Amino acid sequence: MFNLLLPIFMYLIDSILSVVYTQGFLKEKYEKRGMPVIWSAVYFLIQILVFIIGADRFPVGKAAGIILNICILLFMQSFFFQKEMQKQLFITFSFMAGTETAKYMFITFDIVVNGWGNKILGHLLAEGILYTGEKAVAVITICNAVMIALCVLFHALLLTGYLFFISRKYVKKEYPLQTHENVFLLLPCIAALCISVIIRLIISTLSNGMGVVIYEAVPPTRFWLLVIGALMFSDIIASVVLFQKQIQYHEETGKRALLENQVRQMQKEIAEIQDIYSDMRGLRHDMRSHLANISLLVKGAADSVEEELESYIGKMEETVSRLDFTYQTGNPITDIIIHQKGQEAEKKQIPFEADFAYPCKLPIDVYDIAVILNNALENAIEACGRAEGEKQISLRSFVRGCLFFIEVENDFAGNIVMEKESGLPVSSKGNRRLHGIGISNMQRCARKYMGDIDIAISETGGRKKFSLTVMMNGKTA
Asked: Which of 269-273, 390-394, 404-408, 457-461 shows the lowest mean pLDDT across its residues?
């Protein structure tokens, strides 16, 4: 009975941990609260039927059992979770590598615990404490129950710790795995599975026709097999950590290159805008002077000449009016950015309204505000352009004490997926490595002034609204 309870408890632990581990990586199809219970029950029953009840009639070898378990997990993942094949392979192989490695480490622990139990029973018999058969049976039953509890606890803690470390160190869970990257992650798991199969095969050997346990024949293996198991766990976790560091490095390198290019382009544009703005101000002043002089001449001119001059002056006034920016924000840089984005929205037939004022009294660099406005309005125009029906982009700003707020609201279509780790939207563009950096750049500018960004998504009357709020603290600049 006790020999049967031990594997049952282990299968139960594996079933529960398998769904908890998978939930950390994949998105559920049905989003029902009872899904983890259903998964655990189904996986537990399959293991009992295949590896305990059906083992007598249809014995399964160690390697075949691992392959069968992998197939079962992949099938259940495809049924309960959304399809992400590369990630499913990593989850399945890393989980199976953990369970198989934990099993032979557990066998070592089980032998040690049984040895302690036998010593305790031997001591009790030698002291004459177990002087009746009933007492001996009761003590043996208690010892077996305690040993099973200790072994199950050891297996649970070992496997939980291993899966917890992988889940915690695998930071970029939303990152789409490429085939070569997945191979890099799978190789340590496959190596661990192969080593665990070999070790479990050599644990029990035949010598002169009799079964010999390797722990009895070579006692140091009790220590070294535990060391090998710990090293295999460490190898898999280290490969995950290294992979995540590589992703972060490539992302930071790409962001830095894009940001440096953006800085150079922005600096060039700022210099050009300032020159244009100065020229335009001088031109407006000269044009108004010319118009005043022409108006004086018109008063003394003949009627036919007067009509011609009035027509000419009207055209000149239209030209002058085009030189004025639609939005006067208090800074030439923000003037032209909002003016350009407004014209771009108008070309795409997107209603655009702006109530923006540059915070002249706060020591906030206009470059940082320009980065925020450029990225926020560009994203808003792009998202709004994909929406159908009624749509609009609105830009607002206000100052509260030393705090400066920028708000951009726009309509959008489709769904927005938020990254769990950063809390920022995942780019909907094809190459996520090169796109989706605009919002992180805005966040970087805001945090430079001890601020941050906030994103709110709402839906009213069938219209989906994306609201971005950027806060910057002028005191810390």
From this structure: 269-273
Task: Please name the residue ranges forming H helices in 24-84.
Answer: 35-48, 62-80
- What are 254's two structure tokens? 């790409």
Are the beta carbons of 466 and 383 closer than 8 angstroms?
A: yes
Q: Which residues contact 81 (CB under 8 A, 6 or more apart)?
A: 22, 26, 27, 28, 29, 88
Structure-model confidence comparison of residues 257 and 197, the more confident one: 197
Indicate the SS3 state at residue 260: helix
pLDDT tens digit sequence for 410-468: 999 888 777 766 667 766 554 444 335 678 888 888 998 999 999 999 888 888 999 99
408 by DSSP, 3-state: which?
strand
> Do residues 390 and 411 make contact, with C-beta atoms less than 8 angstroms apart?
yes
What is the distance between the alpha carbons of residues 220 and 413, in angstroms, rounded to a whole number?
65
The helix or strand, by DSSP H or E, that contains position 188, with its residue range, turns out to be helix 179-203
Taking residue 414's Cβ as centre, other Cβ atoms within 10 Å add up to: 10
pTM over cut 0.70: no
Only one residue has tokens 């009746």, namely 132
Structural tokens at position 94:
């890393």
Per-residue confidence at 174, pLDDT binned at 50, 70, 90? confident
Separation CA 223–CA 235 (nearest Å): 18
Find the length of the chain. Answer: 477
HSE-CB of 176 using CA atoms within 13 angstroms: 10
Mean pLDDT taken over the chain: 80
3-state secondary structure of 418: strand
Q: What is the pLDDT of residues 193-204, one digit of tens each?
A: 998 888 877 776
Q: How far is residue 281's CA from residue 363's CA, in Å, rounded to a whole number?
A: 26
Query: CA 148, CA 150: separation in Å to the nearest integer?
Result: 5
CA distances from 153 to 234, 349, 390 (A): 21, 65, 60
Separation CA 227–CA 225 (nearest Å)? 5
Listing DSSP states for 408-443 in one string gives: EEEEE-S--PBPTTT-SBPP-SS-TTTSS-HHHHHH
Q: Kindly report the number of other CB atoms within 10 A of residue 28's CB atom.
A: 14
| Alpha-carbon gap, residue 376 to 397, rounded angstroms | 13
Q: What is the spatial distance between Cα 371 and Cα 106, in angstroms, rounded to a whole number?
A: 57
